[in-house]
Amino acid sequence: MSSINSASAVAIFVKTPGLSPIKTRLAKTLGQVAAESAYRLCVKAIKATVVQVDADAFCAVAEQGGLRDPLWQGLESVHTGPGCLGQRQHQVYQRLLQRYQRVILIGSDSPQLTADRLHQAIETLKTEQFVVGPALDGGYYLFAGKRSLSQEFWTNLTYSRSDTCKNLLAALPAKAHLLSPITDLDTVEDLPQLHRELSALGTALSPEQRALLTWIECRENYSSDS
After folding, report:
1. pTM
2. Domain range spanning residue 103?
3. Phi-psi region of 3 (alpha: psi -120 to 50; beta: other; left: phi over 0)
4. CA 99, 79, 150: angle at the middle one, nearest 5?
């Protein structure tokens, strides 16, 4: 583990299957078993990506009882603490800023995220205070910073809306550098775009990303042209 204030940290926000509802909007169409399978593949793909980056990687687990789940094996797991999404992001971000110069928060919904994009965020934070990765649905798939933010900054945001990222950017105390937008997997309608973005990685696909790509292609009635 890196010494205090000497490097970067990446925290993947996750929920534990069996302890919290997983991919509920996807489950409405595909069923809970299929949705959980997709979620596990997403987590494995993102874990495989973050370990390629020069940063300490964590799974920020929503449930205290899920800290030792085998799905997080290979990364240190930390509890997000209680509260809404804004409170949990605040708690993890501030806690890691006490130990690291740069902190990156990502979710488990964008498994096509690449190590190159994480490297870009880390390098940009050497000269900028914040980096944000906008999601195509109006949210964000990545938040990175090196400056403390109040809990109110996080809790005043309304999440899962088409203007979430826009409002986040407006509330920041300094202009953020923006990464290229990508999709995040919330509903079955997101699968075609996720398929395209994974396919576009070509030979850069990790085995874990390729496993998710195969899973998408095997879905009944799924077409990458839809």
Report:
1. 0.92
2. 8-217
3. beta
4. 60
